[in-house]
Amino acid sequence: MTSPSDNNANVTPDDARLLVHAYVDDELDPAHALEVERRLAADPALASERANVAALRALIAEKLPVEPLPANLVRRIEAAVGVPRAPMRLAGRPTWQALAASVLLALTLGSGSTWLALRSVTATVTADTLVSNHLRGLIAPQPIDVASSDRHTVKPWFSGKIPESPRVVDLASDGYTLVGGRIDVVDQVPVPTLVYRLRQHLISVTALPGRFARSVTGGRTIAGYNTVAWNDDHQVYCAVSDVAPSELDAFAKAFRAGTPE
């Protein structure tokens, strides 16, 4: 008899993502759930996928609470698919009726409000992923992949690993010590993250491609961690830390005003 780990070599990236979705939905047996947890701890991309799915589920539950279907719509759906109506369940997972209603809703909505809702989902998922990356850095043996307080060492380290290196600023005179850098994953895209220290607090600064400009603007507070984002030329920067919002804003201003390498 083989264990889940015996089949790891046969699991494709797409299969792994499907397993993560099943894990978030509590659809796996204990053995496979433990195996997915092991893979999540070892694979930042899968951990990012889990954070994205969890954030999306939470937002959908908040924005689209479950409501009973109108009786006439239920009868029309039953007649169309030829399936007798199942007894109504007081709680549990969505039935095919709820899924069908979701499809009808998606086909019906075509206004600007749809775009605003999707944009809100994207912004929440992206910010949640950045906070998750920061948390993984805090609980890891080292919050960085390359350790150096010298910006002339950190910036070249990113070359060849990602499409574009971030602007690296020496902010020691402002009280922010450059600890080093690492590579995170956001929306399946490898992105550079710089890590600075303010007293006993770490600040993660991630440089995102310009297409994320509408996803991380402004500031948010997620799970007790503050974020602030700004556009810089054709990149978007987002800083995450547990320092007070005013201190994080001050860091962002110093970073933007600093002279890069």
Textual characterization of the structure:
By secondary structure, the protein is an alpha+beta fold. The protein folds into two domains: 1-108, no CATH class; 118-257, Phosphorylase Kinase, domain 1 (2-Layer Sandwich). It is 45% helix and 20% strand. The protein has a seven-stranded antiparallel sheet, sandwiched between helices. A hairpin with a 2-residue loop joins strand 6 (225-232) and strand 7. The radius of gyration is 22 Å and the shape is elongated.
How much helicity do the residues have?
40-55%
How would a textbook summarize the main sheet? 7 strands, antiparallel
CATH architectural category of the largest domain: 2-Layer Sandwich
Beta-strand content: 15-25%
CATH fold category name of the largest domain = Phosphorylase Kinase, domain 1
What structural category characterises the helix and strand content? alpha+beta
- Reading off the top of the CATH hierarchy, the class of the largest domain is best stated as Alpha Beta
Break the fold down into its secondary structure elements and pairings.
Blueprint: H1 13-24, H2 30-42, H3 44-63, H4 71-81, H5 96-108, H6 112-139, E1 146-147, H7 151-158, E2 177-186, E3 189-198, E4 201-209, E5 218-222, E6 225-232, E7 235-241, H8 245-257
Antiparallel strand pairs: 1-2, 2-3, 3-4, 4-7, 5-6, 6-7
Helix pairs in contact: 1-3, 2-3, 3-6
